[in-house]
Write a structure and sequence with these properties.
Strand order of the largest sheet: 1-4
Oligomer: single chain
Number of helices: 7
Length: 218
């Protein structure tokens, strides 16, 4: 699905040279989506830009869990008993944009085009996608969980990945408390695990309501 390169841009009031990027595809003199918008917004003034040091990879190697979630299951709203990570982002997968791919393709570089599909949200990703099927003590959280390529298009965004980390943290605490492996959280302690997550949800909901009341009183 490629990666995202984020740029910080500020007006300098004068012409600036663009930093040398030997790893980048040379787009000088090539029209591509967004370039005309930038010219319009900044009135053709060359800007001073800084790039982030780490590119934002949209995908990673994915590990196999006891469940491999598919796009079809999400669209069909298949409800897993251990569903615990709410996913609300649409299916958002990126492939090379063929309109521009042949124009300035160099090596593995390409401009992406996003392809999107909607589904009824939230969808709850099952806990069994968050631990390895063949490494007994391994949890997963983030873009390496047990989903298909298309399903990852909905699960890969930062807030969803962050919630995976929270869920895995609670599961790991249960493992330590009861001396069990990740799979046994599902096999032996699922009701207790989901109960703790519901308690947390109720606590956060109450906290949010209190904060709203405080703000309205100010």
């Amino acid at each position: 699905m490629g990666m995202t390169n984020v740029w910080y841009v500020e007006k300098t009031g004068e012409s600036e040279t663009f930093p040398s990027c030997p790893w980048a595809v040379d787009l000088r003199g090539v029209e591509f989506p967004g370039r005309s918008d930038v010219k319009d917004v900044y009135a053709n003034v060359r800007e001073k830009s800084l790039g982030v040091l780490v590119l934002g990879e949209r995908k990673s190697r994915r590990l196999l869990g006891d469940v491999i979630l598919t796009k079809a299951e999400v669209i069909a709203q298949r409800a897993y008993e251990d569903g615990c990570v709410p996913s609300t982002w649409n299916f958002d997968v990126h492939y090379p944009d063929r309109r521009f791919y042949a124009v300035f393709h160099e090596g593995d570089g390409f401009l992406t085009k996003d392809y999107r599909d909607l589904y009824v949200t939230p969808y709850f990703i099952p806990f069994r996608c968050l631990y390895s099927r063949n490494v007994p003590n391994l949890f997963m959280a983030g873009r390496n969980i047990s989903v298909t390529h298309d399903a990852l298009g909905a699960a890969r965004v930062m807030r969803t990945c962050g919630m995976m980390g929270e869920i895995v943290g609670y599961a790991a605490a249960l493992c330590l408390e009861y001396g069990i492996a990740p799979r046994q959280v599902y096999e032996l302690q699922l009701a207790r695990f989901l109960g703790r997550l519901h308690d947390l949800e109720n606590k956060e909901t109450h906290k949010s309501d209190v904060e709203k009341q405080m703000h309205s009183a100010l």
